[in-house]
Design brief:
single chain; 234 residues; alpha+beta; 5 helices; globular
Length: 234
């Protein structure tokens, strides 16, 4: 199973086809895009099964200026799971098939997100991923506390940290060269020189490898995270 998470920050990325070419290269089973305008998500040609956020209709029927968190899926076995939450509906999408469940999100930096944080913490998905707008050096904010809760209370793993410890973490530099990432070194996921994007997984997930791809900074302000994993049968 391979997933990609990437915040597009509403950039007009399809002017030169950069995102399409990037997605074709990886051939992921699921892509979670955050802050993507509905008009542009609809134009991604390498995925035909596109799942809109909670309580929204299909992408092609959504107002074109609204920015969304969407799931692009390789096949139509994936289904949307609606969640009853009035605020911030455009910021998260929950999907599942017979084998996996994924919660994709873009957390706002606001104080009035307690109900949304509760939904995330109780989602019980195999994978929770996206732009959390959180970094451990700002551990006092609510966004970081939800990560801390998922790791310490719900027994999720931060797959980037897990990859570093197990020597399964890599980064792709601006030249397209894949290099081993090392514990103790800092790897940003945002142009602001912070690591605010995460892929969290339940304890029965076996990590194959995880990659931070810096090449996406050519058409957005976030680095893509690409994860290969499978269920641990032990």
């Amino acid at each position: 199973m391979k997933i990609i998470t990437l915040n597009m920050n509403m950039f007009r990325y399809l002017i030169d086809g950069s995102l399409n070419e990037f997605l074709k290269e990886y051939q992921a089973d699921v892509v979670i895009l955050q802050e993507v305008r509905s008009s542009l998500a609809d134009e991604v040609t390498c995925y035909t099964h596109k799942i809109s956020p909670n309580l929204y209709q299909e992408i092609e029927n959504i107002k074109k200026t609204i920015y969304l968190t969407v799931a692009l899926c390789k096949d139509d076995t994936w289904q949307k799971v609606n969640i009853d939450h009035f605020h911030y509906n455009n910021r998260f999408v929950k999907i599942k098939n017979d084998d996996w469940s994924i919660f994709g999100l873009h957390l706002p930096l606001r104080d009035d997100i307690d109900s949304l944080l509760s939904i995330i913490q109780e989602s019980d998905c195999d994978i929770i991923c996206g732009d959390f707008n959180a970094h451990r050096k700002y551990s006092q904010i609510k966004n970081w506390k939800v990560i801390d809760n998922l790791i310490n209370d719900k027994e999720y793993s931060d797959l980037w940290e897990k990859g570093l410890k197990e020597e399964k973490a890599y980064y792709i530099d601006y030249k397209g060269e894949k290099k081993k990432a090392h514990q103790g070194d800092f790897y940003r996921t945002f142009v602001g020189n912070t690591h605010i994007d995460y892929v969290l997984a339940k304890s029965d997930i076996h990590l194959i490898d995880i990659i931070i791809d810096m090449r996406t900074l050519a058409f957005t302000d976030h680095c893509a995270m690409i994860v290969n994993y499978k269920k641990d049968k032990s």
